[in-house]
Amino acid sequence: MAGKARRKIVVVGAGAFGGWTALHLLRMGARVTLLDAWGPGNPRASSGGEGRAIRAIYGPDRIYSEMVLRAYHQWLALEKESGQTLYTETGTLWLTGRDDSYVRASLSILDDLGFPVEHLDLSVAARRYPQVHFGGVEQVFVEQRAGVLWARKACEVVRDQFIAEGGTWRLASVGPGPIRVEGMDGLELSDGQLLKADDYVFACGPWLVSLFPKEFGASLHISRQEVYYFGTPAGSKEWGADALPIWIDFADKVHYGFPDVHGRGFKFADDTRGVSHDPTSTDRNATPALLEAARAYIGRRFPGLKDAPLLEARVCQYSNSPDGNLIVDRHPEAANIWLAGGGCGHGFKLSPVIGEHLARRILRNGVLEPTFAMARLGRIAKAKTQFKQG
């Protein structure tokens, strides 16, 4: 096997987790090949589409708030290195009902980490954000340092930076070779080639289930999620990022969305986990009943957009672990296979830190975070995916 300084590693999946893992491995001295079946941020991928939120409120889960802090540094560093805009600050408007424990559990953590959060009286919130109807809302918080990461673009920039620094990029689909205790001895590529390396990282989102059915099976649920972009009035500034933050509403169900950032339209999503979804072959047309429910919600919460035209409907997916936590671990039966997934709709923002964490474990014998271990999956009898959305 090659020495650690020049270890040969293949990373399967050029989405957020895979791209950042490949870049960190390369920067730590490995020879890295990055593969993807359709390219970084492609329409089938969980990292596809336009925007993802980055914010630090995570209830009592301090580990994620700390990861967000480090992720900010890396996202902004990549902006500087690439000369590309990848982040737009908007803040996040949190709307809760009587139970505001999720947000309140974060306040001391965020204060300690330097993330300012403002608690608004309802009357103040109504004056500041006249676009919002606060019916059913009892508490309002504004997380000031939060915003939108440009998802597809960011994946492409990470890939391009990886290539610029000496990494090898290939467009190819793969299948894992035979898995033995001592490790896997090669990847079967779509062109028939066998690609061999010292270590193999699979960071391929929803495709982890089809590549490793025995390991994941029913413990990783791939859900269909629909996202809609509605048109705002011509010449209006009240729906832009300078006037309205990202918003997360769990006064009833959990809904979230973005203001009209960079002219993309007003984003709406229902965080309820959808039906099972095949990311490769499923048609991605909007479901009429879900679109009707979205329009009804928009009409109640944002009356000025009641009759807004639909600009775009997108279907993506969440890779849901039973407890809503990520999966970052070594394969239970192969010493040279590493797995990263289970983004659960909130992982994108954390991807620079996930990539760094995994690269340190592979090349520098770092310790993997127990929260993300695969062993926990078998101990969870009933799936209760917690709200960690992103």
Helix content: 25-40%
Supply the helix-strand structural class: alpha+beta
End-to-end distance: 40 Å
Biggest sheet strand line-up: 6-7-5-17-18-19-16-20
Query: Which spans of ≥5 residues are poorly predicted at pLDDT below 50?
Result: 381-387
Domain count: 1
What's the level 1 CATH class?
Alpha Beta
What is the name of the CATH topology? D-Amino Acid Oxidase, Chain A, domain 2
**What is the molecular shape?**
globular
User: What's the average pLDDT?
Assistant: 94
Question: Can you walk me through this structure?
Answer:
This protein has 390 residues and is α+β, with helices and mostly antiparallel strands. The protein has one domain: 2-Layer Sandwich (D-Amino Acid Oxidase, Chain A, domain 2), CATH 3.30.9.10. The protein is 26% helix and 26% strand. The protein is built from nine helices and 22 strands. It has an eight-stranded mixed β-sheet, sandwiched between helices. It has a six-stranded mixed β-sheet with strand order 9-2-1-15-22-21, with helices on one face. A three-stranded antiparallel β-sheet has the order 3-8-4. Strand 11 and strand 12 form a beta hairpin. The protein is globular. The protein starts with 7 loop residues before the first strand and ends in a 26-residue tail after the last helix.
Keywords, separated by commas or semicolons:
single chain, 390 residues, alpha+beta, D-Amino Acid Oxidase, Chain A, domain 2, eight-stranded mixed β-sheet, six-stranded mixed β-sheet, 22 strands, 26% helix
